Amino acid sequence: MSIQWFPGHMTRARRQIQEKLKLIDLAIELLDARIPLSSRNPMVDEILLDKPRLIVLNKADLADAKTTEQWMADFKAEGHASIAVDSSTGTKVNEIPVMAKQILHEKIERQIAKGMNPRAIRALIVGIPNVGKSTLINRLAGRSIAETGDRPGVTKGQQWIKVGKEMELLDTPGILWPKFEDQLVGYRLAMTGAIREQILNVEDIAFFAVKELVKRYWAALAERFDLDKPPSDPDDSDEIVRVMEEIGRKRGCLVSGGRVDLEKASGIILRELRAGKLGRITLETPDMM
Ligand code: GDP
């Protein structure tokens, strides 16, 4: 599932997107609303250049709605239109073609002024693995098209999918790599499920997650796992481990001698967090940029 990105893969992924850019009017940059920074490709501006762009914050159902608004205001200030959607249920997905038309209205009007019949807007979805590209393609298509899962370098025949009358979408998305050289980014990606446990250890990911939650979402963590009071120092690793142990005890993750099975507790914490059971959680705000 997860890709090991080597320089050759990146070069090939980039080249594939640049080939597809020649065919399209609009790039749809898909980000994870919970981690808009970590889910963004570090070279996206260089790759997309001045191609008209719509930023789609996906998995908005799992993210803090207020922070999502802040991100959208921030992207607007950067000169990019954006929209927040939930591709798994389709919420707001219908607005994507409407926004695409708004972004390209000058071009469309020029065509009309020249007496041309404007053709459907051609679009390409780009984003890192697991951000929801295939899910969104299937939603926009209204049927099952894209295979979930990614393999850069594997190309199949490309086709246009009709999205209503006014938009067409390439059926294979552009796969971009994340900013994984930064360890914090790696943990945030792992915490949200974008990269799998074979790369980072499950207890390390859960430790990172609990630390972030203690700092930013203590109330949600305490409510979900019935915890008493927050650690006095969230930067003290021992205190974070104690919170993990308490969660483990509450969930009956015990091994002989009454010790807590931290690996099992870690799995529970991550599963429930990713499924949205702790509520809507965003890990990155625009002021972190
Ligand atoms: P891709 O690798 O970018 O094509 O990502 P997928 O489309 O395979 O999606 C990765 C995972 O995220 C799948 O388990 C999807 O069900 C899930 N997913 C995609 N979009 C959303 C969304 O908007 N909300 C939620 N909650 N889950 C989503």
TrEMBL record:
Keywords: Cytoplasm, GTP-binding, Nucleotide-binding. SUPFAM superfamilies: P-loop containing nucleoside triphosphate hydrolases (SSF52540). Residues 14-178 form the CP-type G domain. Pfam families: MMR_HSR1 (PF01926). CDD domains: YlqF (cd01856). It is found in: Cytoplasm. Belongs to the TRAFAC class YlqF/YawG GTPase family. MTG1 subfamily. Required for a late step of 50S ribosomal subunit assembly. Has GTPase activity. This is Ribosome biogenesis GTPase A.
